[in-house]
Specification:
By secondary structure, the protein is mainly alpha-helical. It is flat.
């Protein structure tokens, strides 16, 4: 449909370009023919495409659409033409000479913006309900102005309800200048910003009884923030018969035309959502702030509109100044100048307003839905399949929702946590205990300094936790094994473990392990050796540096007693290669 709509524009644009471009290269536009091989039509098409790119903004989709439309029309012509130059046929079958514009995917509103939008919307709904409540009171007190007079405000509200409050009628019964109007009417008109005079009075009277388009934005904001499975287009086309209330909540029949899908969703009443009566002592409002409550309030504020105008029962119906003489209802498009979402935000922006620092651009209602989706990301976490839920494919969620700032922040935090765990393991080093401290490991203060209980300190001192080349604070709680099971990587990973405790008496075993690691340096490739033995080698070097005075005696002990590396049987093959 987009290409078909570009046909006329593409033909006009190409013809205008050819008529100005050909004279610059010495050709007469009147002589050019598509089937004439003397003219390089593909070159003209390319030059026209480049000219189109220079005429539109970088992210505009018009150049691609017009090029695609022109090539499509030429393709229809080529299918019927008796003779088409081969170069032109190949150009027609090729794609447009520019890529299709890719629009920047919308980001969600920040949490602070979401809270501010929600608060402003609730405040506006309270004000709307209070205004309509006052209008109904005036209506109840009013009479037919043809008998009771046209200078009383209640009578004019009655006239608005019965279709008599038109500019031509008011001119017949009120003075031409507002200064001569009754004080009550002048004060009433001053309450409404905008046009003064008769047109302003007509708008003000209808405003007391019927919602305007700008009044419907708060409902849309709150409903989209409360309904994670509803798009703006689905919400906008809802009618009163599509909503069915029960004691448990509200059932909605929603239609998504882009996906050609109709579904029914049930929204439960939220017991955690408080009534407006507990939040606003001036005007209690009409219900709750959950989805069923908001729908009830929206239907109620438009009840008089449906009763007066017998209009189609759209949920989003607004009475606006449509013609020169009166007010008319229609399904609110919410996109006309002065009545858009951005206009509603602008009315609350500024010092002392709901949004003193404004709301980030663009002011697009689709960002409300994305805000809800990212809140779901925060709540659920998990895989893309979990986050996509039952209203998106994984691909759609990945391309249109997972890019959001909140999702990126959460992903970054998850990565940081994972890296922190890895780094914590990588940076763990064994603890060297000198002989004087070894004898005192059973004392509470010394054991606490080592990070063990006095009982564990006694076991370490007496060699009951000897793992071969070092002792272990807790062999059943190793960072390299499943908690609760005996460590299965000792002594291979002891020198890269924070549980390891090395005594000076174990230096011979440490030296033998170091010799083996150096031997493996000659056997393995450098990257493999670094991955397997690099950390242990550096840890041993630190131990040897701290107890350098004891190393000669340890070497002598190895030589005198023929000390061998104390290894489990399963590891001897690896260590003796």
């Amino acid at each position: 449909m987009k290409t078909q709509g570009s046909y006329p524009k593409a033909v006009k644009s190409f013809a205008a370009f050819v008529s100005t471009h050909l004279p610059t290269i010495g050709l007469d536009p009147a002589e050019i023919q598509l089937a004439d091989e003397r003219f390089d039509v593909p070159a003209l098409i390319y030059a026209w495409e480049q000219d189109q790119l220079s005429r539109y903004p970088e992210q505009s989709g018009e150049p691609w659409a017009q090029s695609r439309g022109l090539l499509s029309l030429l393709g229809h012509w080529a299918a019927r033409a008796p003779r088409v130059p081969e170069r032109l046929r190949r150009r027609i079958e090729a794609p447009p000479g520019m890529r299709k514009a890719t629009y920047q995917v919308l980001d969600e509103f920040s949490n602070a913006e979401r809270a501010a939008l929600q608060k402003a919307a609730q405040s506006d709904i309270r004000e709307l309900e209070a205004r309509l409540d006052r209008g109904r009171e005036l209506l109840a007190a009013g009479l037919d102005p043809n008998g009771a007079g046209w200078r009383e405000l209640p009578n004019l509200v009655w006239a608005a309800r019965h279709g008599l409050a038109r500019i031509d009628v008011l001119r017949q019964h009120l003075p031409a200048h507002t200064k001569s109007w009754p004080r009550q009417l002048r004060d009433f008109l001053a309450e409404v910003p905008g046009d003064l005079g008769f047109s302003g009075l007509v708008r003000a009277l209808h405003r007391m009884l019927f919602p305007q388009e700008i009044d419907l934005h708060p409902f849309r904001v709150l409903l989209l923030l409360a309904m994670s499975d509803c798009t703006p287009e689905e919400l906008h086309v809802l009618q009163v018969p599509d909503v069915e209330f029960s004691s448990e909540g509200a059932r909605l029949v929603q239609a998504k035309h882009r996906a050609e899908r109709v579904r029914a969703d049930f929204h439960l009443t939220d017991p955690s959502v408080t009534s407006a009566a507990t939040e606003d002592m001036v005007f209690a409002g009409r219900g709750r702030w959950d989805v069923p409550g908001l729908l009830r309030r929206l239907i109620h504020v438009n009840a008089l509109t449906r009763e007066t105008f017998r209009f189609e029962p759209w949920l989003f119906t607004a009475v606006e100044y449509r013609q020169s003489q009166g007010m008319e209802p229609r399904h609110a498009p919410l996109r006309d100048p002065g009545r858009r979402f951005t206009d509603w935000i602008a009315s609350h922006t500024g010092p002392g307003a709901s949004f003193p620092n404004g709301i980030s651009l663009p002011h697009d209602a689709r960002r409300l839905r994305k805000t809800v989706k990212t809140a779901r990301v925060v709540a659920l976490g998990g895989t893309l399949a979990d986050l996509a839920g039952d209203d998106h494919s994984i691909r759609v969620f990945r391309d249109h929702y997972a890019h959001g700032t909140t999702a990126h922040v959460l992903a970054g935090r998850a990565m940081n946590r994972a890296q922190a765990k890895v780094f914590a393991k990588v940076t763990q080093q064994p603890t060297l205990i000198l002989p004087d401290a070894q004898a005192q490991l059973g004392e509470p203060a010394v054991a606490a300094a080592l990070g063990v209980t006095p009982e564990q300190g006694v076991e370490l001192r007496d060699g009951e936790l000897d793992m071969g080349v070092s002792n272990c604070k807790d062999p059943h709680n190793s960072p390299h094994s499943v908690p609760g099971k005996l460590c299965h990587v000792a002594p291979a990973m002891c020198m890269a473990c924070g549980n390891a405790v090395v005594f000076v008496s174990q230096l011979p075993q440490q030296l033998l392990l170091h010799d083996h690691i150096e031997h493996m340096r000659q056997v393995l490739t450098p990257p493999t050796w670094e991955a397997v033995w690099g950390r242990q080698s550096r840890a041993l070097a630190e131990v040897f540096e701290e107890c350098a005075d004891h190393l000669p005696a340890a070497r002598q002990l190895i030589a005198e007693r023929a000390v061998t590396l104390n290894l489990p049987l399963g590891m001897r093959t690896e260590y003796h290669r």
